[in-house]
Amino acid sequence: MHQDRLFIGGAWMAPGTDARIEVVSPSTETPVARVAAAAPADVDDAVAAARAAFDTGPWPRLDPGERIAAIRRLAECYGERRTEMAELITSELGAPIGFARRAQVALPWSMITAFCDLAETYPWREVRPGRYGSDLHVLREPIGVAAAVVPWNMPQFLIITKLVPALLAGCSVIVKPAPETPLNALLLAELIAEADLPPGVVSVLPGGRELSEYLVGHPGVDKVSFTGSTGAGKAVAAACATDLRRVSLELGGKSAAIVLDDADPATVATGIRSASLSNSGQICNALTRVLVPAGRADEFTDALAAEVAGLTVGDPWDDATQVGPLVAQRQQDRVREYIDVGRREGARLVVGGPDMPDGIDRGWYVRPTLFAEADNSMRIAREEIFGPVLVVIPYTDDDHAVTIANDSDYGLAGSVFTADSDRGLAVAHRIRTGTFGVNQGYTMDPFAPFGGVKNSGYGRELGREGIDGYADTKSISVAQT
Q: What are the positions of the active site (predicted)?
């Protein structure tokens, strides 16, 4: 797929420069596409179109039901091209095609409809009795122009969880995809055009970090929703603070899976494999710290080792592949360095290592890796690796496990595995994270708010709260006559 134009304000337009982004396959290390790279002048045009659409256009003034109907049209268009979308994501990200179909495409597609269902019952307008005799009309109105800045790891999921609630609220939106994965975003732009939204309501601008910085600092943007690293998120927050513009941040994680002493090792290993190593471990809410009771550490480590060693690593186009390459060589180098750090720090390497997987001589692969006998003070236990690396940490009792889980700069997700769900729920209440799972990794249920605390950011996506993030609340007091 080659695209020499940009989707600005609902129309395909020539870019402001001749700069191009070369998209490279992570599995073959060869180019697969070239697309136009947006420049600051293109951001200016997109913001101007978005401002006009919001300030004077019909979209924010429509009845919510009309916006819902338009987004349901988008869902229909999306469903017809799911296969193409999955194939593009595998081409540019290297996600195994089975995972691409299931999680990278089917999940965001279902979330479009789920958000529409939520919007059907959302309290856009309500009347409350006032304490002093007045009627109180409470309105939820669109914030304005929203910028959605997304990373490369789950591109469609992360775009949809920002774009769709913002549109349902009545905002106009500028989507800025990562330079590693622009193809799926450009296909989404085609689908948006097919859905026939009003002019100016949506723009899609591929580009690098500099473009993101220009967009989030633009005075014409009212709200920024950013997903990415904690360091970048702090810079985004600072840029928005200058003009008191709204911002929500979904940042890094170092989530803990607490395995209680009554859990079954095989069940735990299967659950953690699914919640931690999908997408080659490039998931912000992956369960990368596995806390096990010291008295049963060998049992749980052996079960995990068997699960990790049994993963099929290879060609992302093969339906049997479970783990594909990492997104880029820099990511491969980063993960390999962390594996070396773990060995130097004294953790025991059980499975994997920095070498290429057997039978693979090209592509940005890393063996799925398991460390045991680690300590929570080690870098591999404290820093987000963003690759297929798990760390087993022993604990003495439940209180010690809770202490270790909470001893992190992050607070995005976590889980507990136990034969007693009530006991697990009691543990869940004690962990300081934005999301948590009992006997599973956190499920991205579209009706449940998702987000973190501490260095994992603030604000929530999904659920009713996902729409709240793009709505201002206005109260009108009406004196009784």
A: 250
pTM over 0.85: yes
Distance between CA 36 and CA 14 in Å, rounded? 9
- Residue-range domains of the chain with CATH: 6-251+457-477 (3.40.605.10), 255-446 (3.40.309.10)
Strands 246-250 and 223-227: parallel
Quote the CA–CA distance of 192 and 141 in Å, as a whole number. Answer: 23
* Contact (Cβ atoms closer than 8 angstroms) between residue 92 and residue 181: yes
Return phi, psi of residue 22, to 5°.
Answer: -95, 120
Amino acid identity, position 445: D
The tally of CA atoms less than 13 A away on the side-chain side of residue 435 is: 31
Facing residues of 256 across strands? 289, 414
pLDDT in tens, 255-307: 999 999 999 999 999 999 999 999 999 999 999 999 999 999 999 999 999 99
Query: How far is residue 175's CA from residue 286's CA, in Å, rounded to a whole number?
Result: 25
In angstroms and rounded to an integer, the radius of gyration of the C-alpha atoms of the chain is 23
What's 127-146 look like in SS3?
A: EEECCCCCEEEEEEEECCEE
Tokens of 294: 């010291």
Tokens of 202: 């949506």
What's at 359, amino acid-wise?
G
